[in-house]
Amino acid sequence: MTDIDLLAMTDEAPGALRLEPVPAWAGPKEDDAGKDGGGKNSTETGTITKTRPKTKRPNLYRVLLLNDDYTPMEFVVLVLQDVFNKSREEAMRIMLHVHQKGVGECGVYPYEVAETKVTRVMDTARKNQHPLQCVMEKQ
């Protein structure tokens, strides 16, 4: 059956009828006849829904500074300000927490960001010949 085989009638003006072609996909299918008991003239209607893939949030990682007895406190404060964009007061608070507790959280980031920050801290410490350690752990 071609697109022009099926015709539909439409009203253009009162009393005037015109035949216009209807696409083959719009008419009843021959294989659907008898499925719902309606014969050849029955049509099925339905709703087409488009499913969207569910996106999930990326895993977050905590970036931690580890205490050592050799890295100057002022250097740790500068690293926190430079790498983690902390204010002087917040950097001092984190540095003192690391000094007293042995470990302190600098921030929580997606994997790639956390990895970059850890690398920057380690590179800066190495360049300045300090044994400061920075690690990341899954939250």
What does this structure look like?
- The protein has 139 residues and is of the alpha+beta class.
- It has three helices and five strands.
- The longest helix is centred in the C-terminal third of the chain and has 17 residues, at 111-127.
- The chain is rod-shaped, with a radius of gyration of 35 Å.
Structural features:
single chain, two-stranded antiparallel sheet, 139 residues, alpha+beta, 3-stranded antiparallel beta sheet
Short description:
With 139 residues, this protein is α+β, with helices and mostly antiparallel strands. The chain has three helices and five strands, in the order E-E-E-H-H-E-H-E. The strands form two sheets. Strands 4-3-5 form a three-stranded antiparallel sheet.
Rounded radius of gyration (Å) = 35 Å
Structural class: alpha+beta
Distance between the termini: 62 Å
| Percent strand | 25-35%
User: How many E strands?
Assistant: 5
The main β sheet shows up as: 3 strands, antiparallel
Mean pLDDT: 83
Tell me roughly what share of residues is in helical segments.
25-40%
Strand order of the largest sheet: 4-3-5
Query: How many DSSP H or I helices?
Result: 3
Query: Which word captures the global form?
Result: rod-shaped
Task: List the helices and strands in order.
Answer: EEEHHEHE
Domain Adaptor protein ClpS core: 56-134
Region (Disordered): 18-54
Biased composition (Basic and acidic residues): 28-38
Protein name: ATP-dependent Clp protease adapter protein ClpS
